[in-house]
Every structure is written in structure tokens, then in C-alpha cells.
Amino acid sequence: MPLKWIHDLSREGAERLAVELSVPVQGILDELCKRVKEKWKFLETYLPPQRADKSDLAMHRGESSDIRVSSVQGHVTYSQIKLRAKVVTDLVKGIPVLSNAEPEAVLKFVIRASEVYDLGLVTDEEWLDILVARTTGRFTQIISGHLSASANWGVGRSELRSTFLPPRIREGLLTKYALERFHFVAEDLSKYIESVVAATNTLDYDVPESALVDGLVQNIHPNVRSQFFFLHKPTSIKELYALAGQVAEGRAIEERRIRAERSGSTDMVQQRSRGSRPVSMAVGQTRRFGLNSAKCWKCSGRGHLKKDCPSSDVSVGEAIGGNDRGTR
């Protein structure tokens, strides 16, 4: 690509770009620009193919979703362009490819595309060019038409909605994705709010913000809504997001408390097990040892007492005055 723009840089701009490219900044401006130009030519061979009709960022019109970097504008550095290109590329991958006119598919495409566009990373013309690679058929024709005419994403989005999401279809989608979109107890509250707000914006749900907030609060799961008891009632989406953050923080603290209690219970069990001692069998062993060495006073045998003597002979103990326990 032409590199005349390098020689049009000011001394400050050339030095800033030279630092980004690890080029020495000594010497006069003309020599500095030559060094920058040589380094840029070397790096350019490792960059993706570029589009001459874009200022600094564009998307190839095809199946690939790679971002094309084309030039550096004065205050924008090479590293910044590469970083922005990577961010946009990653975000675009999250936009579903629109290939059929099924209303829910169109709704999800428009919502996700609007979310990425609202980040302000690309111009309208660049964004329409990017979306061409994420559509097919009639959708591509509509977006391409606005790319060559108005180059306005808002106008293109309006045509997509009016063509594929007529009023009756929008009414059904609004009921499903907003009015009767109920929050589940394990669902992230902020994401729930975000999804409902995005659906109402895309489907042109024209009600006061306070009414939308009231509906959202009513559809939040009762177990989660009960945590609002000590908090003020939200009247705006911003306040509702703030409450969602407090609820998430409360949940995190509760989980930490439960883990601490479980850890404490485990420690107590381990301490008790370490403090206990096995019961000694010395007494039983002594008794067994004493029984084995006992002498019967009836038959003079060993291993049993007189009362358990199996012999029917005359008791030796009786002859010598012993008692029935084998002792005198």
C-alpha cells in the first residue's frame, strides 16, 4: 500500500510511531521517516490483506471474519490499531450468522450486532461492511444497499426490523423476551436485566423507564427479590443494575460464609479424632492371662476354677480346706 502518509507526519508523530516500531529516533525528520518506512514495509508483510477504501479498519466481504488494518492516522498508533482489530474480531465472532428469516434468529442477530456497534469501535460504514460477512441472501442485499447508499447502521437496522419483524411478530417476541421473561433463581441478575432491556429496545417497546423497571422487578425470582427488602426501590435501569451488583455481592459473601462454616466443622471433627485414644485391652488380656494360669482346687488342673471343673473326683479343696473359688 502507499506509504506517503509516513512522510506527511510531524516530527512528534514520526517519533511516536518510531517508538512503537522500535526504530531509533535520532537524526533529521526525513531520515527518521525513511527508517520508519523501511520498518513498516517489513512489518506489513505479516499483516492481513488490506482494503484501500477504508481509513483504518474494515472487514473482508466473504466467509472470513478477519479484520483488515489499512493505515495509521496521526494520533492512532500501530499497536492501538492492532489491538482494536483483535477486539472487534473477537466480538464479531459472537454475532450469529443470519441465514434465514426466522423471527427469533433475526432478533438475536440485531440485538448482538447493536451491542457490539454501541461500543463505538468502528464507523457505520465499517460496521455495515463487517456485517456483510455475517449474513446471506436477502439480508446481505439489504446491508450492502445501505453500505453503498446511506452507510448508516441505524437505517439498515430499521429496515431489517420492518422487513422481517412486522408489528404482530414483534408483539409475540416482546411477550416472550420481555413481558413474560421470568428470572430464574440461579441466573445472573445483571445478565437477565441486560437481555430484557436489549429486547425492549430492539422491539420498540415504548413505555416509561419506571414502568419497564417495575415489570423487571416483578419478574425477578421471589427468592432474589426478597433480598431487596433492605434496599430502596429502583426507578431506573441504572439503579436496577446497581441493586443487581449488591445482590451479587451478597451472594458472594453468603457463599464465603458457608465455605467457612464447612471448613470450621471439618477442623473440629479432625481435632476430636486426634484427641481420642483407643480403649486399652490390658484388663481383658490380664483376665485371660489369669484364667489360663488358674489352678482348680478340685482336680488340681489348670485353666479353670473348681465351680467349672469337669471332673467328678473328690474335691482336693475339700480335703485341704479350700473354698469353691479355688482359694483357701
From TrEMBL:
Instruction: Report a single Gene Ontology molecular function.
Output: zinc ion binding
Q: Which organism is it from?
A: Cryptotermes secundus
Please provide the record's keywords in A-Z order: Metal-binding, Zinc, Zinc-finger
Instruction: Read off the SMART domains from this record.
Output: ZnF_C2HC
Where do the record's region annotations for Disordered lie?
308-328
Q: What is this protein called?
A: CCHC-type domain-containing protein
InterPro entries the UniProt entry points to: Znf_CCHC, Znf_CCHC_sf
Please indicate if the UniProt record lists Zinc-finger as a keyword: yes
One Pfam family per UniProt: zf-CCHC
Task: Give residue ranges for domain CCHC-type.
Answer: 295-311
For whether the record's keyword set contains Protein transport, the answer is no
Comp. bias regions, Gly residues: 319-328
